[in-house]
Write a structure and sequence with these properties.
- The chain is of the alpha+beta class and 99 residues long.
- 20% of the residues lie in helices and 19% in strands.
- It is built from two helices and four strands; from the N terminus they run E-E-H-H-E-E.
Length: 99
Amino acid sequence: MHRDYERSAAPLRITWLRDRVVLSPGGPFGQVTVENLGRPGLTEYRNPTVAEAMRALGYVQRFGVGIVTARRAMRNNGNPDLLLEPDETFVSVTLRLLS
């Protein structure tokens, strides 16, 4: 839902390591920038049809709350906060396990 298929055909990458999972879903878009990525309530729709289909199928509960929800789930589970490393063409998200 977050991918930019016009600038790149690179696949979504998920790297599952012993102590962390790293995701690279695509770069910021529209009002969401490298500087403000992760700010609660900030929403932009790069692929609105795909986003709505994912919501209708139950894969997305609400728009604009994914990072907040992930942070809360990590905290509630006792894990370190997720690490967001955005640049213009991708966002690396690292979810660390308890050490």
